Amino acid sequence: MAVSTQEFLYPLATQVNRPPADIQSTRTVSESMTTMFAAAPPHKATHARTHAYHQVGVDTSVPMASSHQLVLMLFDGFLDAVARARGSLLAGRIGDKGEAIGRAVRIIEEGLRSCLNLQAGGSLAADLEALYTYVTLRLTQANLHNDAAALEECARLIAPLRSAWAAIGPTVNELAQ
């Protein structure tokens, strides 16, 4: 079963922090659409994603962010961590490099990958899982071998996802209203 981008992004966009009175209408929209992400009620899904963000050390305006903004923050945090790892590696600060790579791995594994629903997301979710698995492997190799090129490769692989995610922001915000 092929799942279009709009079919899995719309339910994600509707799962924002809302007062309890709005939860029922959000649940109705969310349940009627195919979703790539965990099929928990919106308030539980938002709580789970918020918890994941706190676990990976992203502390900027998480409570007020939409689901779309939270994922964008993960992409930004990942790219920042990889850039810090590369800078630390080039400066010879191996401990800082290891911390930054560890943060990047946690963002991929605990933030981006953990929210994938492989059953509902079809081949797109499977492709993202394979990409996230590969990026985690390359980050580990970069850490073990002090490989700046592997860090650059990871950033090049994730940057287009971040750009695409940011580009759909206005559409997602419009659909969420």
Brief summary of the model shown:
This protein is mainly alpha-helical.
Describe this structure in words.
This protein is mainly alpha-helical. The protein contains eight helices and no strands.
Helix and strand arrangement:
Elements: H1 5-14, H2 23-32, H3 42-55, H4 67-91, H5 94-112, H6 118-145, H7 148-167, H8 169-176
Helix pairs in contact: 1-2, 1-8, 3-5, 4-5, 4-7, 5-6, 6-7
Distance between the termini: 28 Å
Low-confidence stretches: 1-44
Order of helices and strands: HHHHHHHH
User: Major sheet, described briefly?
Assistant: none
Mean pLDDT: 76
Total number of strands: 0
Using brief descriptors, characterize the structure shown.
single chain; 177 residues; mainly alpha; 8 helices; 0% strand; globular
